[in-house]
Amino acid sequence: MKNSLDKDYILEVNNLKKYFSMNTSFFNRNKKYLKAIDDVSFKIERGKIMALVGESGCGKSTTGKVILNLIKGTGGEVIFDKKVLFNIEKKEKVSKKEITSIRKNMQIIFQDPYGSLDPRKNINYIVSEGLIKHKLVNNKMQCEKVVKEYLNYCGINDDVLDRYPHEFSGGQRQRIGIARALVLKPKFIVCDEPTAALDVSVQSQILNLMLHLKDKFKLTYLFISHNLNVVKNFSDYIGVMYLGIIVEKGKTKDIFENPLHPYTKALISSIPKSHPLEKRERILLKGEIPTGSSIPEGCRFHTRCPYAKDICKNEAPIFKEVNREHFVCCHFV
After folding, report:
1. Contact at 8 Å (CB) between 60 and 52?
2. Rounded Cα–Cα distance for residues 150 and 155 (Å)
3. At 303, is the pLDDT very low, low, confident or very high (cuts 50, 70, 90)?
4. What are phi and psi of 277, to 5 degrees?
5. Is the pTM of this model over 0.90?
6. Lowest-pLDDT range, 22-31, 280-289, 304-313?
7. Residue 220 in contact with residue 47, Cβ under 8 Å?
């Protein structure tokens, strides 16, 4: 079995932060910030799927966008394929020439298949735009050939090049979005809740397609979802996020069979039972979810945690490894 030093990590995220300024007045000198992500760290092994899960607003989508530099981070470091993309504290970043090369290897599949495709452009333009920008094709004929090839990989007939997004269903649009990301032959894809807007029957089709494409093209995914049931049979590793931080991280099997953080336990208890006789007690969390602009002192979860003690209110727990590749942020684990 490989230890962590022997593993080939394609992505390393170290102490990533993103704070949004909340100042509403030019004359207000007391700056306030919404801490969307606050000291997030994880690694993804090449060819694996890491899922980030949590309730809406926990910072998982922001994490993905900061990694891709679609949003500028406030602090931290991202290393992709052994190269530092940026280290904000050291003021390091790759050159513009290098970022162009790296950009095609890091792609994103968006959540909304309706809003992520330009309604004014036809499918040929949408899928080929990246090919042309990165100069991966020599002429129009070659471009159309490549577009058709990747649409076919994603289950879309190649006679649709002149059609527009409104002519397709949600599932078909998402397949087109996947083809758009895949056509650049990336190594790593951020999947930002790619099934959230789809019917349950279509969700499974898209997930199966993504698994097939991962194996075929040797891809690595960061899969973002609020639905633990979706990632259970899809991901290799899970990071559970709450209020801008990762509170538990480990192999998917370990997270489901031995959840350690009270928040993780509550999330898993909310998954619908697969069988009427299955015994699982629902854990109901009380209280309002704090916002990133009013983070509680101590443990961020203590205002909703049924096991909270005085230490939780006053002292932030350390994120520690309790079993092999199983980390948790809790005083009592």
Report:
1. yes
2. 9
3. very high
4. -90, 0
5. yes
6. 22-31
7. yes
CA-to-CA separations, 321 to 55, 63, 113, in angstroms, rounded: 24, 22, 38
CA distance 128 to 122: 10
Q: How many CA atoms lie within 13 A of 27 on its CB side?
A: 0
Q: Report residue 176 CA to chain centroid gap.
A: 19
The class that CATH gives domain 9-105+186-271+282-328 is alpha beta
Q: Give all strands of the β-sheet with 319-323 in edge-to-edge order.
A: 106-109, 188-192, 220-225, 49-53, 237-242, 245-251, 326-329, 319-323
3-class secondary structure, 51 = strand
Question: Which residues of the chain are in CATH 3.40.50.300 domains?
Answer: 9-105+186-271+282-328
- pLDDT tens-digit map of 181-203: 999 999 999 999 999 989 988 99
pLDDT score for 258: 96
Cα 291 to chain center, whole Å? Answer: 20
For residues 85 and 180, what is the distance between their CA atoms, to the nearest angstrom? 23
How confident is the model over 115-123, as a mean pLDDT? Answer: 94
For residues 111 and 314, what is the distance between their CA atoms, to the nearest angstrom? Answer: 38
Task: Identify the helix (H) or strand (E) that includes residue 131.
Answer: helix 123-133
CB-CB contact of 247 with 240 (8 Å)? yes
Task: Calculate the dihedral angle through the C-alpha atoms of 103, 109, 113, 119, rounding to the nearest 10 degrees.
Answer: 10
Name the burial class of residue 193, with classes exposed (0-12), middle (13-18) and buried (19+) by CB atoms within 10 angstroms of its CB: buried
